[in-house]
Amino acid sequence: MSRISIRKLEQSYGAVTVLERINLDVASGEFCTIVGASGCGKSTFLRLLLSEERPTRGEIHLDGAPISEEPCADRGVVFQRYSVFPHLTVMENLILPLELRAAPLSGRLYGRPRREARERAGHLLSRVGLDHARDAYPKTLSGGMQQRLAIAQALIPKPKVLLLDEPFGALDPGTRLRMHEILLGLWEEEKMTVFMVTHDLKEGFKLGTRLLVFDKLRWDPDAPQAYGATITYDLPLEDHRSPPPALVAEAEAEAPRQTSRPCNPRPCNRGLADVAR
Amino acid sequence: MARAINRRPGRSGQILLGALPFVLLAAAYLLASDARLAVNPNDKLLPSLESFAAAIDRLAFQPDARKGTYLLWADTWASLQRLVLGLSIATALALTAGIAIGLLPMMRAAFAPVVAALSMVPPLAVLPILFIVFGLGELSKVVLIVFGVTPFLIRDLSFAVAALPREQLVKAQTLGASSWQIVTRVVLPQVLPRLVGALRLSLGPAWLFLISSEAIAATEGLGYRIFLVRRYLAMDVILPYVAWITLLAFLLDYLLQRLSRSAFRWLPGEQSL
Ligand SMILES: Nc1ncnc2c1ncn2[C@@H]1O[C@H](COP(=O)(O)OP(=O)(O)OP(=O)(O)O)[C@@H](O)[C@H]1O
Ligand SMILES: [Mg+2]
To answer: Mutate which of A12, A22, A42 to test ligand 1's pocket (most atoms within 8 Å of Cβ)?
Structure first.
């Protein structure tokens, strides 16, 4: 089980309100994709979900209990960069979580327990297609391989929730498609709840069971920082594998504006809203 | 005709070019020495090769008349002991304090300012204090090296720790790591190359502090010897000692470089030393 419920969430830094009035219920095993203009608070939202920061107001519950006060193993994360440890080989990166759990003091496993850990990690390793690179250091891996490793590593502790912040942002389209298959496959296998930020609306529609759009609803021209973004559209994507062609067309038309525009003064995604209606 | 910035020596050209200044220096010395000795055979300023050989033979291969020891080796042993002991203590202190200050916000708030202030104190200025507090023996010499080198090492390491991507620390926590495990499995291994680099840069100052303290108060040691024989203008002893100290310093640096090349194969190319 991994049900998330968020009530009246707000995050401000001094006089700057980044997020406000966020209420959300996400059922166990949903795949939420998050889109929104640059700087509107998507990463902040993930940081709150991860407990990397405490919200200014509001609560986040995981399976009915408030989430822990600091990041812990029930919520895994993959960032766009720096997600794997450069001083560990692929295999060492993968068994690290197992070593940390089994050996509180040394953080290392030797001999038979180590071999068992390697066997356990071996399955995920082949799922993400890194069998051949098990003893390579990250510096020798391509961006796509590093992200596959990062995803596999994040899944080793069997997190209830997986948070991804533009994980494929730096990858070429072909590599992205392969990453999509791998991610969807792992999601079906592990049944965790996923939140994934993306700037690629098409990707959002393709992967998600639900698409969340972040934007500002209220806007004060004299004090642009006064109000924060909230979830303006919450679109269930019934069969996420085949988005309606109209949506994709809209998405493609919207995508360039989405990424280049700073946080929008007026409610955005009118096109999207029309389609959703 | 290629631009000067694009003209590169070949493999053998590089060796030749590198050796050239050494050859020129040696030749200039020999010429000058010959010229002076031709005028005054008892000249002490630029001794001949034979007097170097005689001095080295006397110091390195004949037991000293008074002490019965081989002076060069006894001096080398005494100095290296002080140097290595001082650098080891400095390294241990710097690893502990540097990681604590770089990683733990509470420790940073408490100790970063005092370390920054201490690193501004000229170490030689506190040497008299060390002599008064710790006496004229081994301890004050080792403490001088520790005092002179540690603040720099701590600051360099704490900067390296603080510069680790925040993402890595968050990721480690989501993989279930405790603070201690983050130190031992994430932070320490990644700042070790930087430690070796900082240690290499500290070798010069460490030798400086060693020679200085030996010059002022000691009964043996490389620095003690050259300052002792200075009274007799014994250039035939001083110059080989200086060359020997230089060689030792070079070898230590080389060892650390080799260590870092072989031990940190994970480093991306542009960061390796
Ligand atoms: N610690 C902080 N202190 C002050 N302001 C912050 C802080 N963290 C984030 N912000 C502000 O919050 C806003 C949202 O930042 P965030 O990184 O969440 O946006 P984002 O939606 O992820 O953008 P992008 O699409 O570019 O990644 C930005 O305007 C940023 O300046
Ligand atoms: Mg972001």
So the answer is: A42
Beta bridge partners of A9: A22
**Nearest-CA residue for atom 29 of ligand 1:** A39
Q: What is the pTM of this model?
A: 0.85
A82 pLDDT band, cuts 50/70/90, is confident
What does the pLDDT read at residue A58? 94
Q: Which domain holds residue B31?
A: 10-41
**Domain ranges, residue A178:** 4-74+159-276
Q: Return d(Cα A71, Cα A62) in angstroms, integer.
A: 13
**Residue B103 · residue B182 · CB < 8 Å:** yes
Same-domain check for residues B93 and B26 = no
What's the structural domain count of chain A?
2
Of A157, A186, A202, the domain-final residue: A157
Tokens coding B131: 């002599």
Give the separation between CA A101 and CA B232, rounded to whole angstroms: 68
The helix/strand/coil state of B55 is helix
Q: What is the CATH number of the domain that holds A11?
A: 3.40.50.300
Give the count of beta carbons closer than 10 Å to the beta carbon of residue A226: 15
H/E stretch holding A126: helix A111-127
Q: B90 and B24 share a domain?
A: no
Same domain assignment for residues B27 and B103? no
Q: Which amino acid is at B46?
A: L
Contacts of B189 in chain A (CB under 8 A): 87
A191 plus A109 within the same structural domain: no
Residues in chain B predicted with pLDDT less than 50, given as ranges, are none
Chain B's closest residue to A47, CA to CA, is: B170
Provide the 3-class DSSP secondary structure of residue A40.
coil
Residues B81 and B181 in one domain: yes
The total number of structural domains that make up chain B: 2
Nearest to B181 among A79, A100, A157 (CB): A100
Please report whether residue B133 resides in a domain. yes
Neighbour-count burial of B124, counting CB atoms closer than 10 A to its CB (0-12 exposed, 13-18 middle, 19+ buried) = middle
Q: Are A243 and A34 in contact (CB under 8 A)?
A: no
A259 and A200, same structural domain? Answer: yes
- Both B64 and B37 in one domain: the answer is no
Segment (H or E) for A78: strand A75-78
Quick one: tokens of B130? 């060390």
To the nearest whole Å, the CA of A106 is away from the closest chain B CA by: 7
Of A71, A88, A99, the CB nearest to B173: A71
- Quick one: closest CA in A to B192, which residue? A87
Identify all chain B residues contacting A77, using CB atoms and an 8 Å cutoff. Answer: 170-171, 174
Least confident of A73-82, A231-240, A255-264, B15-24: A255-264
Both A146 and A189 in one domain: the answer is: no
